[in-house]
């Protein structure tokens, strides 16, 4: 029996090709963001005489942009911005969504209906337009982008937690804990949170991908981080004018955004399959 249990666990932990690709992409993103000052041979805002140099130019592996800045340095430092926004916005959204969804799902009744009305009000606005409005109100900057994307993304976590709690609160172990005198907060944190950790982690991986893509869109529109801080979205915006003469200024940051989002989605799919074997094909 023990041997069969161990063999079953090994089969679940054995990564597929998509999982390996996703982990590799995220590892590249993390290494590039953490070791950007070491990997980049030049500061991201340093100007060189070579303007719009092609990739492979001596001293500039990925070339230079329209004002002579090293594309490699800006790409690596832009990974820091994307990862910071993704982690910050997703963490805040997960905490707020867990609190709102936990209170709504466990309390039920009028409290549940009131909180769900608040969720529906936020969902009635298009996510991108709401984020643009919030950033425009608070002013461009890294903090504004994180707060705006968290305000857009917390509703998904709230609905997920509420839906799971509506089912879990009727389980026998919750009734036993309630009979033993445990309070609501203790029941949620001690007995229900372990059951919610898997779905929250899976949703967080998709939320990270969405936050990175949204940050790039806001920076592309000029509502992201302030210059001269490098961002993948601002790199796209700067290079779109020179697509004919220097296409590398657009396809390099565009490819970075695509691979980062793809990596989080592949890992999210793997986590979903691991947490729920019924979804595997």
List the helices and strands and how they pair.
Blueprint: H1 2-13, H2 17-34, H3 36-39, H4 71-107, H5 109-123, H6 127-138, H7 142-168, H8 172-179, H9 184-220, H10 232-239, H11 248-275
Helix pairs in contact: 2-4, 2-11, 4-5, 4-7, 4-9, 5-7, 6-7, 7-9, 8-9, 9-10, 9-11, 10-11
Can you walk through the features of this model?
The chain has a single domain (15-49, 60-279), classed as MetI-like fold. The chain is elongated. It has helices spanning 2-13, 17-34, 36-39, 71-107, 109-123, 127-138, 142-168, 172-179, 184-220, 232-239, 248-275. The protein is built from 11 helices and no strands. The longest helix has 37 residues, at 71-107.
Output the keywords.
single chain; 281 residues; mainly alpha; MetI-like fold; 73% helix; elongated; disordered N terminus
């Amino acid at each position: 029996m023990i041997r069969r249990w161990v063999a079953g666990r090994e089969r679940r932990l054995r990564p597929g090709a998509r999982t390996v690709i996703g982990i590799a992409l995220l590892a590249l993103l993390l290494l590039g963001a953490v070791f950007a000052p070491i990997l980049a041979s030049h500061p991201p805002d340093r100007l060189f005489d070579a303007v719009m140099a092609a990739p492979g130019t001596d001293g500039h592996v990925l070339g230079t942009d329209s004002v002579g800045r090293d594309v490699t340095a800006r790409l690596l430092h832009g990974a820091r911005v994307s990862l910071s926004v993704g982690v910050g916005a997703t963490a805040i959204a997960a905490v707020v969504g867990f609190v709102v969804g936990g209170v709504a799902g466990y309390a039920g009744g009028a409290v549940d209906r009131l909180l769900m009305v608040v969720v529906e009000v936020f969902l009635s606005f298009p996510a991108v337009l709401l984020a643009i409005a919030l950033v425009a109100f608070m002013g461009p900057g890294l903090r504004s982008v994180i707060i705006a994307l968290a305000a857009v993304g917390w509703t998904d976590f709230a609905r997920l937690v509420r839906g799971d709690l509506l089912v879990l609160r009727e389980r026998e172990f919750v009734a036993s804990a309630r009979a033993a005198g445990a309070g609501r907060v203790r029941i949620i944190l001690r007995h229900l949170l372990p059951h919610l950790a898997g779905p929250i982690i899976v949703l967080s991986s998709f939320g990270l991908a969405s936050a990175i893509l949204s940050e790039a869109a806001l920076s592309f529109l000029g509502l992201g981080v302030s210059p001269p801080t490098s961002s993948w979205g601002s790199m796209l915006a700067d290079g779109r004018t020179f697509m004919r003469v220097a296409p590398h200024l657009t396809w390099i940051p565009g490819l970075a955004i695509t691979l980062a989002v793809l990596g989080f989605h592949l890992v999210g799919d793997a986590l979903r399959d691991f947490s729920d074997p019924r979804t595997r094909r």
